[in-house]
Hints:
Elements: H1 3-28, H2 34-57, H3 63-73, H4 77-83, H5 94-102, H6 106-109, H7 116-128, H8 135-142, H9 145-152, H10 155-163, E1 165-169, E2 176-180, H11 181-196, H12 202-211, H13 218-231
Antiparallel strand pairs: 1-2
Helix pairs in contact: 1-2, 1-3, 1-5, 1-7, 3-8, 7-11, 11-13
InterPro entries: DUF4487
Amino acid sequence: xxPSQASLVFKETALCVLMISAFKVLLSQQTHVKSAxxxxxxxxxxxxxxxxxxxxxxxxxxxxxRLTLLDSLFVDAQCFSNQISKKQIxxxxxxxxLVDILxxxxxxxxxxxxxxxxxxxxxxxxxxxxxxxxxxxxxAITSKLQWLLxxxxxxxxxxxxxxxxxxxxxxSGKTIIWESMFSALILSLKTLMINLSSSPAWEELETFLxxxxxxxxxxxxxxxxxxxxxxx
Length: 232
């Protein structure tokens, strides 16, 4: 493939991973289909994360392409605030939201409000399995931690993080449990810290923690304090 074609294929593959994450979020919000969310988590979560990690670790993925891939998945907060409606998604809109996801292209994915939480959930999953990342990929993921804080300042995101529960695989990977999104996020961040402790990317993580120590947003500040307490 030519570089431009490879970039498009990688982005389309990453979008498929993001779509699966979005389905998981939507299913977890509907009481009558929560069991379907558990099945999806059991069958697809680790597989989709493995696929994304394989793209990030690939020797054919240049540093520029790796960053472009992450930028297409985890767009900055300014894009969110400019493109996402402030109106809450009601249960009656869930069906149309699913249809919207199916019709997305790479270009329109960044403006789809239904994918907002899915991006956070996907980032959380990548951090959870960050031990499988190569060093260059660890640097790339660590560079997106500021993106995570920026997104968490969005009222729709932090309210969902504090109130939502998602199905996750337990430590054995054989049992699905329901865990609060906030707890899962904190655990994933701590896992990333452990995996970066012996990595050259640790210095970038230290810089991030120092720069975010006095973060003005209450949820972001609480997360940073949790990480500082875990570190020291």
